[in-house]
Amino acid sequence: MITNTKLISFKTFNDNYGSLIPLEVEEDIPFAVNRAYYIFNVEQGVRRGFHSHKELEQILVCVHGSVKILVKTPFESEDILLDQPDIGLYIGPAVWREMYDFSSDAVLLVFASMHYDTSDYIRDYAEYEAFARKYFSAM
Ligand code: T46
Asked: What is the chain's alpha carbon radius of gyration, rounded to the nearest angstrom?
């Protein structure tokens, strides 16, 4: 996995009544959750994201269907297929992301460390690259 990303496996409870995945802050999600949102009804061929965050940490879970996520820094990049409700993709600060190849039934649930704040977004790639080079050199 590239820097500031990781896959997290969640424990599933399966019984005769179905399946259940509990997510506990600190145990399963490595930050205090201040916001959640979900993305669905994405048409074929649509690509979303195209930004980084300065501080925000998030966990992306494809709870139904499938989606691919490109995560990228100035130094490395990776395409990740999310198609299991028991896998979370952690994305930390200074990572560019694009979401694509949504299946028509995909539901992408996201847990975020901060409230919605447009000033935390970097949407211009040149600006992102300058920010990330500084961020990662200070690590
Ligand atoms: C991210 C990826 C994975 C809100 O009003 N509140 C919110 O909390 C969010 C996330 C969005 N919005 C509004 C802002 C836009 O008018 O919803 C609309 C779509 O948001 P955006 O174009 O930012 O969606 P994506 O799919 O490009 O990015 C989202 C998150 O914004 C972003 O933080 O990492 O999903």
From this structure: 15
**Model pLDDT for residues 27-83, shown as the tens digit of each residue:** 999 999 999 999 999 999 999 999 999 999 999 999 999 999 999 999 999 999 999
Burial class (CB within 10 angstroms; exposed 0-12, middle 13-18, buried 19+) of 112: buried
Full-prediction pTM beyond 0.70?
A: yes
Q: Ligand 1 pocket: which of 48, 114, 118 to mutate (most atoms <8 Å of CB)?
A: 48
Is 64 one of the catalytic residues?
no
To test the ligand 1 pocket, which listed residue (110, 113, 114) has its Cβ within 8 A of the most ligand atoms?
110
